[in-house]
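Escalation from tier 1.

The customer reports that the assembly of two entities below gives different structure tokens on two consecutive runs. Tier 1 could not reproduce it. I'm attaching the input and our single run for tier 2 to review.
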Amino acid sequence: MTALAERLADASKHKLRTVQEYFSLAGKALRFAFARPFYAQDLVQQMDEIGVKSLGIVLLTGFFTGMVLALQSSVQMRAFGATMYIGRLVSASMIRELGPVLAGLMVAGRVGSGIAAQLGSMRVTEQIDALNTLGTDPIKKLVTPRVLAALVMLPILTIINDFVGILGGGLISSLLVGVPTGYYWRTVWEQIASDGFTLRYIPTDFVQGLIKPFVFGGIISITACYFGINTTGGTEGVGQSTTRTVVLSSILILVVDYFLTQILLSVLGA
Amino acid sequence: MTDDARDPTNVPPAEPDARAGERRQEGRRASERRPTTIRRAIRDELADDDPTDEYWAETHPQEHRVVPVIELDHVYLAFDRPILEDVSLDARKGETICLVGESGTGKSTTLKLILRLLVPDRGRVCIHGEDITDLTFEEALEARQRMGMVFQSAALFDSMSVYENVAYPLREHTDLDEDAIEARVREKLAFVDLDPDQVMGQLPSQLSGGMRKRVGIARGMANNPEIMLYDEPTSGLDPLSTGTITRLIMKLQRELDVTSVVVSHDIRSVFRMATRVAVLYERRIVFFGTPEEMAASDNQYLRDFLGGS
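Tier 1 run:
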């Protein structure tokens, strides 16, 4: 019984230490963003890697999600004779929830796994030790540019995702459901405007829809860097780090999304 | 052969019994001094005089008996289990110290301690007499700029070309302009017998194992460090490449008077390049002396080690 208690205590200590290390890495990565030397070239390279190269899958998922959203809701809404409100439904769903979450999940799969695999390989082939011995802080050189790039690029990817989603929804609405294109876009705007504006000009929906991907960008990059840098056990370890990154960041995105929505709804209203 | 016979700690104490009695009473202090005693015992068995000191008095009269460049002083380190116990060794300017021993005895860990990638639980690690165990992370990064490290796997950055790899420490820590950097990269690549024009644009993945190791050495010495550390520089190489790398390490010591610590399994190379050899066995240094002393030793473990290699 005592042995069991000890093991439980050890396990919880280990978990706590992991959480502590995770946040410590996040803190260092952000702190180093304001300290010399700046690795601008690495930042641009990571923005390309995380942002530009993820554009394809984000466009595809956004477009098809918007289309299927319009299609499914048209079936339900037709029963109430409310098909003219498809634009409102598609825009609210895409901007508030589906855009950020889907972009987050897609980037977690594509970029998170890539970062974990790359940093994990660098760890097991002693390249991270080499950075240390060459007098470079690996966190500054490897983690900070990735975290910054993700923080900047994920909101941009989300805006694109939202837009093509609404575009896809519009295409289905006008082609299959019979809602006129002009009317569809008018209802989209009505929905955006109906939730009010923050700081007078920024639609509140946008604020909600952009804070989320910012947080998700942090979750994905820090999780991937954490598992990547702490990889042990050779190539098998690299595989495990990659899997853990995708699983944990996906779960965190979904869980954090709920709580973030709660907070944002109470702060921003609507 | 029994385990007892192999155990290097079975070397009979060379000190009088009265002293041994005192040490028993001293408890922990006695256990800390044990390997020193064994080392002394082995040396006492070998010769009365100290050929190492004579050698150094002749070749480095200025540096003789001055502060060692690298010094590990009664270092203890443990993670989940003990890794190093009471490890003491020193390297004087221009010396090549070879660390040998079975796998998992803490050889690479010793290099990491010198680099201050690890901090000992007890004991001191000094560079030029300055204790580096209490340095902050930033100070440690700076201290490492005086050292060059060559990794077992070469550890070249695989996303960068050979040129970028060798130029990396220069870009990080010097204000040299691009022409000066290129000149330095060419000089270092030529030093390690590589044709700069041929390899500079290549990626590490396009090079052979021996070439990667040589680029690793070029990168390690790019900043003209005074200390070079090598982690199994010849492992996984064919005999010819092994010879080339060994010659390079000797060339660095001879021409640039670099102080080196080499972790190696290759006894032939060790005997060619070492000024002194440290043998690690079960977390402790059981022998520290010249290759000649090592070869002449009748300690069973050392004989087994040399015979079995």
